[in-house]
Amino acid sequence: MNMGGPNNLDEVEVFLNNMFNDKRIISAPKPIRKMLAKLITWRRKEEAKSSYAALGGRSPLVGYTKQLISKLEEGIDATVHMAMRYTPPYSFDALQGLKHVDEIYAIPLYPHYSSTTTLSSMEDLEESIKKQGIHAKVKTLHSYYRHPDYIAASVERIKEALGTDNPEEFELVFSAHGLPKKIIDNGDNYQRHIKYNVYHARKALLEAGIQFHKTHLAYQSRLGPLEWIRPYLEDKLKSLKKKKLLSIR
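Below the sequence we write its predicted structure tokens.
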């Protein structure tokens, strides 16, 4: 389970409209949310299409998920399905033909829990299960940001990006997706989970003898007039304009 992404440029508008129609993204009453979603989609779709065109005309998330499914099916005795939140295949599609199963293991591919991602996907899955009259027992993961293998994988990506360069010559920037500050203030654990990962990744790097000149965390993808969690990535990059940077997304 993941948020999904456009499978082609024609799906960009579908992706944006579905995302901003999500009550976990915009908490306004449904009629207002629907109007806001249309407005935001209209304003952002051309810029978004240009960005996806630069990526080959589609979101890489779908391809990566298919690769993951292929590897999983090689190692477990189960059929693995892909369910996306905002683009096909949706959870309703993924559940087709599963009325006969006794157990469903729903795995949200969001390492850090947030109401805007994990909870939204699980609510969507539960609604689809009810609509199709499925009575299987559902097991799931809350998050996996603390798992040693996840932290180790993050560290390996940093090592790959660094190569043979001297880490002390670089400022390391961890770039995470941002959220409106009010969502965090209302108790969402996302930012706490992100900070945990950055702390333990930095600790693992030091234990491996890799020490950067300085390490930073910043948040990207800010949208609209609301205050989002800080520091913003664009501000952080401006402050480091003349530094040698290694950025890990």
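The mean pLDDT is 94.
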